[in-house]
Amino acid sequence: MDRKKYVCLIYEFLSEQGGLERELINHANFLKEAGYEVELLTCHLDPKILTLLPFEGIKIREISLFKTKYEWLNLALCFIGLNKLNAINPDLFITYSFPTNYLIRNKKTKRINYVNHYPHFLYLSDDEKAEWADGTQGIKRKIVVWISRFLGVPLRALDRKLIKKNDLILINSSFTKKKLDRLYNMNSIVSYPPLDKRFHPVEESIKEQFVFSSSRIIPDKKYEWLIEAMSFSKSKLPLYLAGSVEDSYKSKLMDFAKEKNVKVKFLGRLKTEEILAYYSSASVFAFPTPGEDFGLVPAESLSCGTPVIVWNDGAGPTEQITDGVTGFLAKPYDKADFGKKIDLCIKSNLKKKNRNKIISSASKFSYLGVKNSFLQEIAKVI
Question: What burial class does residue 204 get, using C-beta atoms within 10 Å of its C-beta: 0-12 exposed, 13-18 middle, 19+ buried?
Answer without folding.
Answer: middle
